[in-house]
Amino acid sequence: MIRFEQTFMNFLLHHQERHKRTYHFLILMDALISAAKHVEHYYLTGALKGNLGLAGDVNVQGEDVLRMDQIAQEITVHYLRASGRVIHAVSEESEKIIPINTEGGRYFVYFDPLDGSTNVPHGLPVGFLFGIARRNMEGPEDGHLRSGKDYIAAGMFVIPTGAFTLALKNAGTWRFHMDEIMDFVRPVRMILPEDTKEWELSFNPANRHAYAEKVQSWIEQNERKYAFRYLGALAGDFHRILANGGMFMYPAIVNHPDPRKNRPQGKLRLMYEAAVVAFMCREAGGTAVDETGTPILDIQPKEPHQRTALYVGSKPLVGDIARALLG
Ligand code: AFP
Questions:
Q1: 228 C-alpha vs ligand 1 centroid, how far in Å?
Q2: What is the sign of the dihedral through the CA atoms of 251, 257, 260 and 261?
Q3: Ligand 1, atom 15: nearest CA belongs to which residue?
Q4: Nearest 5 degrees, angle CA 173-CA 304-CA 287?
Q5: Cβ neighbours of residue 251 closer than 8 Å, sequence gap 6 or more
Q6: Mean pLDDT rounded to a whole number for the chain
Q7: CA atoms within a 13 Å half-sphere pointing along the CA-CB vector of 127
């Protein structure tokens, strides 16, 4: 018997109709889906085509640029441009804000089309993360950098697994999977489980002795209660937390033996990493804070590539570590 599944586009059309929304967002989402499928294809065939190595450039953050970074960036900017719906984009791959359709665009898009660079040479999972905010349609535009609480949607593709998760403001977080004709299908609402049996902790254990003392002692007191998992690509690690509950964290690095390697601001980028997962987490019943216990979604970015520490996941765990951080 053939099993017919609801497609992502069908799901979104009904959502837009129910909430009396415009078709503009559909066009933008269609562009992002096309971009992600295209990146997925290049990644899947990357090892054979020699696309998983270095491009030979160094980016503004002093990191080696991968060939796949360039390919993913080019593909995504192409589709965003073709949509006609985007004013400006902020990308991990571009130092400056990218003007797209500054006159007619309606949305700001903040994205990292290939996040998790250490997994790339191995063809292991990486993320395509994005957040979307709406232009101020009523008056003069008041800035390109919105805090996460002003996003209207945020999502992530875990490439090349075919998993896609999208959160829509006040309408939940939904997960889809790619079928044999590359349609994303079978919407499943994601709600963080309350049962602590499945909860996981996720952080880079190589850094734990460089965290603030309060964080180190919190880990010592709590780590044995939960399973531990770490992939090294935020989208993949957060994918598990959304399904199983628990907490992903990338704390500030403040006690590194080589002080030049300290990262008191944190490592992850606010606009296209931390705020994206924080938004998805909120819509799934969870929460996220930074090193000062401030909700990630409340942080107003001052610059596009701003970094932050991140604690994201089930409310009791994030609340507990926030109290430890403030104590
Ligand atoms: P890249 O930005 O270099 O691709 O790093 C990925 C990432 O921002 C995020 O996806 C991971 O959770 C985190 O960094 C991993 O960092 P470590 O390698 O320091 O654990």
A1: 17
A2: negative
A3: 232
A4: 30
A5: 203, 207, 211, 212, 215, 266, 291, 309, 311
A6: 95
A7: 26
Smallest Cα–Cα separation from 145: which of 87, 228, 189, 186?
87
In Å, what is the CA distance from 158 to each residue of 129, 238, 311? 9, 10, 20
Model confidence over 59-103: pLDDT tens digits? 767 778 899 999 999 999 999 999 999 999 999 999 999 999 988
Pocket test for ligand 1, best of 268, 269, 271 (most atoms within 8 A of CB): 268
Q: How far apart are CA 97 and CA 304, in angstroms?
A: 7
Question: Sheet of 310-313: strands edge to edge?
Answer: 227-228, 200-202, 246-250, 310-313, 287-289
Q: Does the C-beta of 241 come closer than 6 Å to ligand 1?
A: no
Contact 128, 112 (CB under 8 A): yes
pLDDT at 21: 84
- Give average pLDDT by consecutive 10-residue segment, the chain, 327 residues: 91 91 94 98 93 83 86 98 97 94 94 96 97 84 85 98 97 96 96 97 97 98 97 98 98 97 97 98 98 98 97 98 95
In short, whether 291's Cβ falls inside 6 Å of ligand 1 is: no
Tell me, what's the pLDDT at 28?
97
Radius of gyration of the chain (CA): 19
- What's 10's DSSP letter? H
Burial class of residue 289, CB neighbours in 10 A (0-12, 13-18, 19+): buried
Atom of ligand 1 nearest to the CA of 92: 2
Q: pTM of the prediction?
A: 0.96
The answer to whether the CB of 118 is under 6 A from ligand 1 is yes
